[in-house]
Amino acid sequence: MAQAVEEWYKQMPIITRSYLTAAVVTTIGCSLEIISPYHLYLNPKLVVKQYQFWRLITNFLYFRKMDLDFMFHMFFLARYCKLLEENSFRGRTADFFYMLLFGASVLTGIVLIGGMIPYLSESFAKIIFLSNSLTFMMVYVWSKQNPFIHMSFLGLFTFTAAYLPWVLLGFSVLVGASAWVDLLGMIAGHAYYFLEDVYPRMTGRRPLRTPSFIKALFADEAVVVARPANVRFAPPPGEEFHRD
C-alpha cells in the first residue's frame, strides 16, 4: 500500500506534486502548531506597510482544519490539477504555472477591491485564505475544457462535467459552507477560460501569452504521441461527438 502511494506521488507532474506537497505540509504544520496561520493569511495592510509579501503566496497553501472538507479539497487538487497538467497542458508546464499565477492574481485582486466596496467589504474581509478558491478555479477550467464527460455525484445522480462547478457549489451551500469561496473560484476560472479559449477564437488575438521569463523557468520537453493505425482521434465535420 505504501509503495503504491509512493509510486502514485512520484508519477504526479511537477506543478501538481509541488502544490499538493506545499498545501499538505502547511496545513499539517498549522494543525501541529509548528506554523501559525496568523503569519500566513492575506492581510493587505501588512503586505503594503510591513512588506510581508509572502502572504500573497501562503494564503493559497493553508486549507484550514484537517477535516472532511480538507480531504475533499485535497482530492480536487490532486485530481483536477493533475488532469489539467497531464492533458490540457501536456508538455506546457510554463503555461500551466502561468494559469495558476493568473488565477491567484485575479482572486487576490477581487478580494482587495471587494474590501473597498461599501456593503460588500464586511463579507470580503472574512476571506483571508484563497486556497479553496484556487482549487475551485481548476475544477471550473477543467469542466469547461471537458464539458461532455459523464459524472456521478456520490452515486445519487449523474450529470455532465459542464455542470460540475454548479453541483459542488450547491453542495457547499447545503452543508453550510460559504458560497463566496466557490463563486470566487468560478469567476477566476471563467476569466481564464474566456481570455484563453473564447476571446482568441473571436478576435484571433491571445492576451494570455505566457511571458518568456516564466517559460525560461521550465524546460518543457516536446511530447510525441504515437497515433495507432485505424484509430480516429477526431470526428469528421458534422459527426456528433460524446465522451463517456
Automatic annotation (TrEMBL):
Main localization category: endoplasmic reticulum
InterPro entries noted in UniProt: DER1, Rhomboid-like_sf
Topology within the bilayer: Multi-pass membrane protein
SUPFAM superfamilies referenced in this protein's UniProt entry, alphabetically: Rhomboid-like (SSF144091)
Location in or out of the cell: Endoplasmic reticulum membrane
Transmembrane portions of the chain: 19-41, 96-117, 123-141, 148-168, 174-195
BP-aspect Gene Ontology terms: endoplasmic reticulum unfolded protein response; ERAD pathway
Any one GO cellular component localisation term in the record: endoplasmic reticulum membrane
Signal peptide extent: none
Keywords: Endoplasmic reticulum, Membrane, Transmembrane, Transmembrane helix
GO molecular function, one term: signal recognition particle binding
Pfam families: DER1
Protein function: May be involved in the degradation of misfolded endoplasmic reticulum (ER) luminal proteins. May be involved in the degradation process of specific misfolded endoplasmic reticulum (ER) luminal proteins.
Family indicated by similarity: Belongs to the derlin family.
Protein name: Derlin
Provenance organism: Theobroma cacao
